[in-house]
Amino acid sequence: MLTPIDIQSKVFKGGLGYDRKDVDSFITEIIENYENLYKENVALNKKIESLTTALAQYKTIEKSLQKALLLAQKTSDDIKNQAKASAQLIEEEAHNRAEQIVADAKTELGYIHRKTMALTQQYDLYRAQFEQLARTQIAILKSETFQLKLSNMGEYVESPSKEEMPEGAKAEEKTEESEPERKEAEKDETADE
């Protein structure tokens, strides 16, 4: 293959002019070399065009991948932020709900405590009232107004004659006569106590 230096340094033989054979041979060699260079240049240009197209495609793919990667990163960050916000919201709601449950339980406990205290006081009041009622009833039972005096009952009741009484009633009359004496003895014993 001829170089530019070869072309510049080429000297043709001759006397008065150039030798036609040398010039034709040189031109033929230049044509062949130029044709080879031209073909190589066309091939290289096609290769450059092909590589440029491929490079452009790769750059487009690279840009698409970068965009996809950035979008994926942004989406990932958004999802993380949403998840954190959602988790924080759920945690706050759970905390608030727990506080509400505890507050409700304390309120309910206070209500039950007050109700228990009121019932205990009411029980103590009723118990005291019943004790007072029982003491009053016992006092009434022990009072003289409630004591029957059989010795004075004969004044208010007419006793039938012994002839009008049946046999069994006569025996009861004897028992009744001793009954006031027995009651009087019991009364004396109670008074001694």
Question: Could you walk me through the main structural features you see in this protein, from its secondary elements to its overall organization?
Answer:
The chain is an all-alpha fold. The chain folds into 2 domains: 4-146; 148-193. It has 3 helices and no strands. It has helices spanning 4-9, 20-142, 167-192. The protein starts with a helix and ends with a helix. The model has no long low-confidence stretch (mean pLDDT 80).
In total, the number of domains comes to 2
Helical stretch count?
Answer: 3
The tally of strands reads: 0
**Largest sheet descriptor:** none
Order of helices and strands: HHH
Tell me the distance between the termini: 159 Å
Rg from Cα: 70 Å
How confident is the prediction overall: mean pLDDT? Answer: 80
Structural class call reads mainly alpha
Strand content: under 5%
Shape: rod-shaped
Helix percent band: over 70%
Poorly predicted runs are: none
